[in-house]
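Exercise (ungraded).
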Amino acid sequence: MRAALVAEYRKLMSTRMWWLLLLVLAGYLVFIGIVMAASFVFAPEDPDSGEVALHGIDAAKAIYGLTNAVGYVFPLVIGSLAITTEFRHQTITQTLLVEPRRGVMLGAKLLATVPVGLLYGVVGTVAVVGASAPLLAGWGDGAYLTDGSVLQVLALGIVVTALWAMIGAAFGSVVPNQVAAIVVILAFTQFVEPIARLALGAFDATDAIAKFLPGAAADGLIGSSLFAEIGGGAELLSRPVALAVLLAYAGALALAGRFTTLRRDVA
Amino acid sequence: MEGLGKTFGAIRAVDDLSFSVRPGAVTGFLGPNGAGKTTTLRMLLGLTRPSAGRALVGDRPYAEHATPARVVGAAIESSGFHPGRTGLGHLEAYAPQAGVARARCRELIEFVGLAAAADRRVGGYSMGMRQRLALATALLGDPPAIVLDEPANGLDPEGIVWLRQLLRTFAGQGRTVLVSSHVLAEVQHTVDDVVIIARGRLVHASSLAELAGLAAPETYVESPAAQALADLSRERGWAARPDGAGLVLTGVPAAEAGAAAYAAGIELHQLASRGTGLEDVFLRLTADPR
């Protein structure tokens, strides 16, 4: 297993994709961090409507949680590539020659994405904090970077990014076609899940379901949800439950991949 | 292989195939395109599950060896490379599971003649360079058995000679070498044994010498008295076909043709053994019966 882990980690780091995506992630989060912080700091006060009126520590947490809230597509994609590039370039044949135990191979891939995911989390968090903290501190209610609960948000944002990478790898095993996997990830994260969270969160009967959606569970783990604050409405899962839910997503997808994609003959 | 079979839908790609490959020799695994060679090798290597029978490496199936890359080194035709990874990076990605260190990768890439291209991305490699890299990958674990699927494809003539010598060296070291090809001539000078399949079934397995025994010798004769030679050939019932200025006699050793011409008083300007028509035997063995 150790050898398989080292091998999978080397595969991830030996092409340019990991740092290309990381650069885009950092740039994107710097941009979003500035925009969001500015919109909170410079938004005109409107005490009557109460909309987008995040203040103080809530504003800081919501912005610092952006690594997860808008950045999660990046770890998902890099995770899925761990599997889909093997099928796209037919290196899966060689991979299974040196490791015929397919469950071990898949497990190693899932775990090998964790350090990459942590790196994405650290860089993403540094980007978003670096971009927004000066605005919050200079013109807003403060950056709150010494507050314990804020530091928790930052640390868990890194952890959740690693989990997203793992979920991405598990998803890749279910959809090994690279283009299809990326399209589905983009469609789900940018379109399907936000709408589902809004729709399900709008009714009491379905509100309980909404918090189990992967993005909502990730918000639960972090303990802050920009989405909920600006009208998503749904309450969040407690941290232990949210962690279990995210791990369950990875596990269920990996199992599905093991018994579909990886049960077939490799052509 | 014992009674190995693989069915894709209604198609029997490999049907009740049994043969064994011995150490210390190069075995040619031959058959026309689509005969089931790659499918057989994939079953041998645990990539494809057999519908029937089993394939063993030593005492157990390939996939049940603890470190299979140290038992069999294989290069399968459809296996690919990530174009964005360097040649050395490719080897290093597969080294841990072969139980070898990075130093061995550098050594191997030099061994297969890719030292200058080691740090270039595989996307820019030629077909022949990819074959060399695939071979290096197969050799990572210094395995006692080597399975190569059409290894000569894309190699330049110099590369083919190099490969030939390499395979002979491996066999000389006592390793088991199995090489597939759809062209007999390509491996004719390299192999000791042949296993020939067609339409998924075994049609012949023997030493190369025995296969040659099935082949009819061919003799080229040329005479200024062409008509007399043609008459003699007809009289003797030889299978003859015109070839340039003379005749090619099939199934007639040079000595017999020479003696007959001498007895008939026919002057010969050329009498040459063309060797045996191995390619003809191969084609005959693998011909579609329909």
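Further reading is listed at the end of the chapter. For now, observe: Chain A touches chain B through 27 residues (CB under 8 Å). The radius of gyration of chain A is 19 Å.
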